[in-house]
Design goal:
single chain, alpha+beta, Arc Repressor Mutant, subunit A, Udp-n-acetylmuramoylalanyl-d-glutamate--2,6- Diaminopimelate Ligase, Chain: A, domain 1, CBS-domain, 4 domains, six-stranded antiparallel β-sheet, five-stranded mixed β-sheet, 15 helices, about 25% strand, CBS domain, Ser_kin/Pase_Hpr-like_N_sf, WH_DNA-bd_sf, HotDog_dom_sf, CBS domain-containing protein
Length: about 425
C-alpha cells in the first residue's frame, strides 16, 4: 500500500506541464498536513518534476533526460539571471536551444530568430512582439517591462517573456556560463548512465539461504540487495554470508546490514573508488530510500574505458592546466614539461597548489600506465614541499614508479625549474584491472 508521501508524488507527476502548485493547495486537495506536502514537493523538485522560481512559485516542469543535460529550460534561465516572468508562464518548462542578442533592425534580426530561441533585448517593444511571432521567448534587460499586447501574445503562445535588472552583456555571460557548465557535466559519467532498464535480482529479508542459493543458480551472480517489503534497502547478501549456513536460515540473520550504496547522481569514478577501497563487486543504487538498480565492478570498468575514448566538448580546469604540457620518457621516468600560465597562478603570481597537484597527478598516472594497462584513480597525494614558481617559467615534472601492485601503485614525482628541485610529492594510485 502506497504512503501519503508516494501518493503526493504520483499526484504531482500527473499534473500538466506548466501547472503551478503550492504546499497549501496540495495539502487541501489530498487532505494531508502541510509538512507532509512540503516534504513531497521538495522531493519532487529533487527528481526534476517541479522547479521553484522566485516571484513565480513552484511549477510542474518536464523531467529532463540525461541526453538533454546540456540544455537549459526557461525556468532555469529565470533563476540564473534573477529574473521575473512578465508573461508566458506555462512555457517555462520549454528548453532553450540557444540565444541571440537583438542589436540590429527588426528586419535583420528576424533572419536569426527560430522557434526555441531566446531573444535578449532592451526596451524595444516592437522587437518583443516580432520575436514572439517567430516562436522565440524574450529576455528584456535593464529591468524594463513591455506592453499589455506583448504579454497577452506571450500567454497565448506559451512563450516566456522575462525581465532582468542586469545589462545585456551580464545576462548573456551568465547564460553562456551555465550552458558551458552543462557541457562539462554532460561528459561526467554518472551511475545513472550505467543502470539497466531491467529490474535487478533481489531478495527480501524474510527469505532463506535456500532461496539465496537458488537465485545464485538462476543468475550466476553471488551478491544481491536485500529489501523490506516496501522496497527499502536493508542489507546485502554475498557468498561469504551464506557459507556454512542451513538452507532454512533467514537471510535477515546473516546479511550485511547498512551496506554501502550510491545514488544515480554519484560519479562512476567515485563508485569505482568505493569498490576498490572496500573490495566490493556490486553496489546497490538508491534514490529517495528506494532501490533503483545495481552496478557491478565490470560495469564500472567498461564505462571508464568507454569514456576515455570519447571526444571532450567543454574544457575543465584540468584541461586548461595540462593543455600546455607535453609528456616524454626519460631514463625510465615520465617527464611532463610545460610553462606556468596566469590561470595556474595564485594572486601573488606563483604556481598554485591546485595546479601543482594536477600536474603531479597527471605525471604519476602516465608513469604507472607505462607499466600497467589499466583504469586508474588517484587515492591520495602527499606534498613534501613546493617552492615559489613564477608565471611564464618552464617546469618539468619527473615521475618515477617506486611500487606497483595488483590494486595499488606508488609514484614519486619531483618538480624541477631548470636544474633546481622546486617541488616533491608521493602519489598513491588505485588500479582497476581491465
Amino acid at each position: 500500500m502506497s504512503t501519503k508521501h508516494d501518493q503526493i508524488l504520483k499526484h504531482i507527476e500527473d499534473l500538466p506541464i506548466g501547472h503551478k502548485i503550492s504546499v497549501r493547495q496540495i495539502a487541501k486537495q489530498l487532505q494531508v498536513s502541510e509538512g507532509t506536502a512540503y516534504r513531497a514537493i521538495k522531493e519532487a523538485e529533487g527528481q526534476g518534476l517541479v522547479t521553484t522560481i522566485e516571484r513565480v512559485g513552484t511549477v510542474r516542469i518536464e523531467k529532463k533526460q540525461r541526453r538533454d543535460i546540456d540544455r537549459l529550460t526557461f525556468a532555469e534561465v529565470v533563476n540564473i539571471i534573477d529574473g521575473s516572468v512578465l508573461g508566458g508562464r506555462s512555457g517555462l518548462h520549454k528548453t532553450l536551444q540557444k540565444f541571440v542578442i537583438a542589436a540590429m533592425e527588426i528586419q535583420d534580426m528576424v533572419k536569426y530568430v527560430d522557434p526555441g530561441l531566446l531573444v535578449i533585448v532592451g526596451n524595444r517593444e516592437a522587437v518583443h512582439m516580432a520575436a514572439l511571432e517567430h516562436g522565440a521567448a524574450v529576455l528584456i534587460t535593464g529591468g524594463f517591462t513591455t506592453n499589455a499586447a506583448v504579454i497577452h501574445l506571450a500567454d497565448r503562445l506559451d512563450l516566456p517573456i522575462i525581465s532582468s535588472a542586469y545589462d545585456t552583456f551580464s545576462v548573456a555571460s551568465l547564460i553562456n556560463r551555465a550552458i558551458y557548465d552543462r557541457l562539462i557535466k554532460k561528459e561526467v559519467l554518472l551511475v545513472e548512465d550505467l543502470l539497466s532498464q531491467e529490474p535487478p535480482a533481489i531478495l527480501t529479508a524474510d527469505r532463506t539461504i535456500g532461496d539465496y542459493r537458488e537465485l545464485v543458480k538462476q543468475t550466476g551472480h553471488s551478491r544481491f540487495p536485500v529489501l523490506q517489503e516496501d522496497g527499502k534497502l536493508v542489507g546485502v547478501i554475498a557468498a561469504r554470508d551464506g557459507y556454512g549456513q542451513d538452507s532454512d536460515t533467514v537471510i535477515e540473520k546473516v546479511m550485511t546490514k547498512q551496506p554501502i550504496s550510491v545514488t544515480p547522481k554519484t560519479s562512476v569514478a567515485a563508485a569505482a573508488h568505493m569498490m576498490v577501497w572496500e573490495g566490493l563487486e556490486l553496489l546497490p543504487v538508491i534514490e529517495y530510500k528506494r532501490l533503483v538498480g545495481v552496478i557491478s565492478r565490470q560495469d564500472v570498468i567498461k564505462a571508464l574505458q568507454y569514456n576515455q575514448k570519447q571526444p571532450q566538448i567543454g574544457d575543465t580546469i584540468e584541461d586548461i592546466v595540462l593543455g600546455r604540457f607535453v609528456a616524454n620518457v626519460e631514463d625510465k621516468a615520465v617527464l611532463l614539461s610545460g610553462e606556468v600560465t596566469p590561470q595556474m597562478s595564485t594572486p601573488h603570481g606563483s604556481l598554485s597548489i591546485g595546479a601543482f597537484t594536477t600536474i603531479i597527478g597527471e605525471a604519476a598516472m602516465q608513469a604507472l600506465r607505462k607499466i600497467k594497462d589499466a583504469n586508474m584513480l588517484i587515492e591520495n597525494s602527499t606534498l613534501y614541499f613546493l617552492k615559489p614558481v613564477q608565471i611564464d617559467q618552464r617546469i618539468d615534472a619527473r615521475a618515477r614508479v617506486i611500487d606497483s601492485g595488483r590494486k595499488m601503485g606508488k609514484v614519486d614525482v619531483e618538480l624541477y625549474r631548470g636544474n633546481e628541485l622546486v617541488g616533491k610529492a608521493l602519489v598513491t594510485i588505485q588500479v582497476l584491472e581491465r
